[in-house]
Amino acid sequence: MRMTFETGPQTGEPAGGRAPGTPSDGVTPEPTTTRPPDPGAALSLRGLWKRFGQKVAVRDLDLDVPVGSFYGLVGPNGAGKTTTLSMATGLLRPDFGTVQVRGTDLWAHPEQAKATLGILPDGVRLFDRLTGLQLVTYAGLLRGMDRDTVAERAKSLLAAMDLTADANTYVVDYSAGMTKKIALASAMIHAPRTLVLDEPFEAVDPVSAANIRDILADYVTSGGTVIVSSHVMDLVQRMCDHVAIVGAGQVLAAGTVDEVRGDQTLEDRFVDLVGGRTRAEGLEWLHSS
């Protein structure tokens, strides 16, 4: 597939603009024959494209996430992970391509599709002048849940996240780990079938990270699906059963962790695919004499 760019300033299309499947001005992907979306997948992406100015962030990306999997999306900085997940969850409109959530077209039926998703975006911005309890309660009420159910679930989630003692503390006063946990609780309040988490362990202390991993593992065991982006290979290798390696806006390899890494570690396989490893030269002065 080729893309043709017109000259002149371009900007990313804001959410709520033109329908996906219609290229943005100056972007003309040629039609291709691709596999149809998998209606049985938790998430099925086909032919996704996204450009910001002259930079193509995602190009012709296909991905299927099996129901009940713990799926890792890994790639170097700037690989297109966040852009892909933003398009996959309705936060950003693709220039071209389709997204299906358990067989439902995300852009044709957004309310139905998004009702099954719990989302933790990268660099999440919260209403941090609310207490932790108020924030989780607000998230449940926004989903149209009744107050009694919200109150019961919020109490359970705060206990699971070890935040009961801080339920009435303002979120602005939370640590980075506490903030991630309260954001995750807000994403889970409506019992989504799929959680999409962008860098959930970034800036999180080891104890909080371990607690979050346990919660997510229990969620998958009970039938949920988790999609998590990360650039920490060891974490993904230990935590996930499926993985996709993304580079330059494309999927370079995807499958079970064992299939993708082969007889290598996941980190070595990752480096082989994305490249970029260099050997430092001219730093002999750093060596001990």
Automatic annotation (TrEMBL):
Region entry Disordered, spans: 1-40
ABC transporter domain: residues covered: 43-273
Gene3D superfamilies hit by this protein: P-loop containing nucleotide triphosphate hydrolases (3.40.50.300)
Signal peptide: none
Subcellular location: Cell membrane
GO molecular function: ATP binding
Keyword annotations: Antibiotic resistance, ATP-binding, Nucleotide-binding, Transport
Keyword Lyase found: no
Annotated membrane topology: Peripheral membrane protein
Domain of life: Bacteria
UniProt keyword annotation of RNA-binding present: no
Listed SMART domains: AAA
Protein known as: ABC transporter ATP-binding protein
Organism: Myceligenerans crystallogenes
